[in-house]
Amino acid sequence: MTRNIQIHMKTTEEKITGAFLSLYEEKPLEKISVKALAEKAGINRGTFYDHYLDIYDLYDRTLAAFTEDVIDIVKKLVGTFLSGDLSVVLESYPAFYESHKQMLQIFFVIRPSVRLQKALQQQVKSSICENFGFAFDDMPVEGRYIMEYITGGQLNLMTHWFVGQDPMDIESLVRLIWQINNSGPWPALLKILKENQA
Fold it and tell me: What is the pTM of this model?
């Protein structure tokens, strides 16, 4: 495949994805037709089917790509949160948020994706365990409960911020999350892990 064809395919897929997200903000998946999507994207139906099997395939691939992006940023951010170096978080997260704002709103607020939330929680647990040098299944039961508390709390806090009912700038939000974690859940988890090693 030539480079020009690859670029054209990527541009077409971006147009399709953009049209899909716009429609998905307005109505549930089962109410989105290929015809309406093709019109909104400025393509014909055949072009849609050159790229996707159906609307559900488009949804799955869009969500999978977004989930991968979210997991990549989570891997980067968890370690810096644990180290206390907020500079990486303060540099990385605002750019990520701005470039993914529409999808964050859709998949966390407008039409929350349980699949995305579970993948995100699992990645946070994995990253925390990796940073602490423990396997989740080897933790004492109290440690697993604290991990559930941490991941659920973080997810709910971020979703609350995405909803925007209580406006807060990104830097203040990052500092608040760091303060909550370091005043409560992290010390409790570290204490349990150290006791389990003894």
Answer: 0.82
